[in-house]
Design a protein that fits this description.
The complex is a heterodimer of chains A (93) and B (103). Chain A is mainly alpha-helical and 93 residues long. Chain A is built from three helices and no strands. Chain A has one domain (2-92). Helix content of chain A is 90%, strand content 0%. In chain B, α1 (2-27) runs antiparallel to α2 (31-56). The chains are: A mainly alpha (93), B mainly alpha (103).
Chain lengths: 93, 103
């Protein structure tokens, strides 16, 4: 079972590496933000899998804190970009 | 034995949806159409993988923490997708139309 979980974790980590392409190339800032969010979710799942591969319980707490941080980072950055866009339209009009 | 098989099936479903989400993130033409596959497939993949691992796990507190992470992911992933899409709209990004070039 450990070997199988390791295989799944490797597949998901490879997916996260492929997602970096969108974070580098993505034409708009929102594309990069979305790609970073997706990579974060995949890393969270890899951390959950590592908990059971290594049989160490405290990685689950790390995963919980990681989920909270990921949510806050994405929402705060998107609100920040939104406010920036509003200022531009206001100066245009 | 049965527990391991159920956990393996759930993990395979989760990895499959993760691969689909990555393909959507790379192949779709626009930020709005990219939001759809990546956010949804990520939510479903993460939740089914965590459910499979919870079936495999033994202790009560581990299962409680996994269920908490799963509920929080269900809430936060959808909220993140909505926030990113709203910031794209308010920054004046035009949606992709048929026949246009990929962006």
């Amino acid at each position: 079972m450990d070997d199988f979980l390791t295989l799944v974790a490797m597949v998901i980590a490879l997916n996260a590496l492929i997602c970096i392409y969108r974070a580098v190339v993505g034409p708009t800032t929102q594309d990069r933000l979305l790609a970073v969010n997706i990579i974060g979710t995949k890393t969270l799942v890899v951390v959950v899998l590592v908990t059971f591969i290594q049989a160490e319980n405290f990685f689950l707490d790390v995963a919980m804190v990681y989920a909270l941080l990921l949510f806050i980072v994405t929402v705060a950055l998107s609100r920040y970009l939104e406010a920036e866009g509003w200022e531009e339209t206001r100066s245009d009009g | 034995m049965v527990k391991n098989v159920i956990a393996a099936i759930f993990c395979c479903i989760g990895a499959f949806w993760f691969i689909l989400g990555t393909a959507g993130l790379l192949r779709m033409p626009d930020i709005f159409s990219r939001l759809h596959p990546s956010t949804k497939c990520d939510t479903l993949g993460a939740c089914s993988l965590i459910a499979g691992v919870a079936v495999f796990s033994a202790s009560f507190w581990d299962i409680l923490k996994l269920v908490l992470i799963m509920c929080f992911l269900l809430l936060s992933s959808a909220t993140c997708g909505h926030a990113v899409g709203r910031s794209a709209v308010r920054n004046g990004i035009k949606p992709w139309g048929k026949g246009e070039e990929k962006r």
